Amino acid sequence: MGPDDPDAAAVTAWRAGDQAAGKSLFAKYFEPLVLFFRNKVDEGVDDLIQQTFLAILGSIDRFRGDAPFRSYLFAIARNELLGYYRKHGRRAGDVDVTEISVAAMSSAQPSRLLARHHEHQLLLDALRTLPLDLQIALELVYWEDLSGPELAVALGVPEGTVRSRLRRGKEMLAERLTELSADPATVDESVREIDRRIAALG
């Protein structure tokens, strides 16, 4: 594992059988996983979180540490999410994450627990209309501050593809926000914040 990974010691200890280390990672990433899943599924958030950690536990010996643990965690979470859609979504079979949106696959409404302000709710509503991998990329940048390389691991694509998806996603998000909001200032503020975080990727 890279020297800059703050979770390296806990992962090493967990791999060696230290269950307390595994519990510490679960506690650290429980809320980020709640945020990840809650705007994407109708129900079963707790089950998806549990399945994500069970999948990590089952593969932890194969985790080489080439990327930070959190990027690996969100890659597993994304796989569990796609499995959920294949099993429970409106559309059976493969899920084309480059085309289909959460809004098209789900009858769920965005969680009001996530939205502390009206503009945050608009952002959540707009994100759900984007193709799923664009939504995931923007949310991981916006809420989790994942870097370009971390996003590449989480999404399973080259970093250049990540950056092109972020640009496309930002453009689509601005369009959706404009459709949903009568206040241009709210749209501008949300887009500026996304711009700032994408620019910080370097």
Set down the secondary structure blueprint:
Elements: H1 8-15, H2 19-38, H3 45-59, H4 69-88, H5 102-105, H6 118-127, H7 132-144, H8 148-155, H9 159-180, H10 184-199
Major β-sheet profile: none
Structural class: mainly alpha
Question: What is the CA-atom radius of gyration, in angstroms?
Answer: 17 Å
- Spans with pLDDT under 50 lasting ≥5 residues? 109-116
Extended strand count:
0
Regarding CATH, which class? Mainly Alpha
Name the CATH superfamily classification. RNA polymerase sigma factor, region 2, helix turn helix motif
Q: Which sequence of SSEs, written as H and E, runs from N to C?
A: HHHHHHHHHH
Report helical residue fraction: 55-70%
Cα shape: globular
Which CATH architecture is right?
Answer: Orthogonal Bundle
Number of helices: 10
Compute the average pLDDT. Answer: 83
CATH topology: Rna Polymerase Sigma Factor, Chain: A
Q: How far is the N terminus from the C terminus?
A: 22 Å
Strand content: under 5%
Number of domains: 1
Any overview of this molecule?
- The chain has one domain: Rna Polymerase Sigma Factor, Chain: A.
- Helix content is 67%, strand content 0%.
- The chain has helices at 8-15, 19-38, 45-59, 69-88, 102-105, 118-127, 132-144, 148-155, 159-180, 184-199.
- Helix 4 packs parallel to helix 8 and helix 7 (132-144) packs across helix 9 (159-180).
- It is globular, with a radius of gyration of 17 Å.
- The model is unreliable at 109-116 (pLDDT under 50).
Brief overview:
This protein has 202 residues and is an all-alpha fold. Helices cover 67% and strands 0% of the residues.
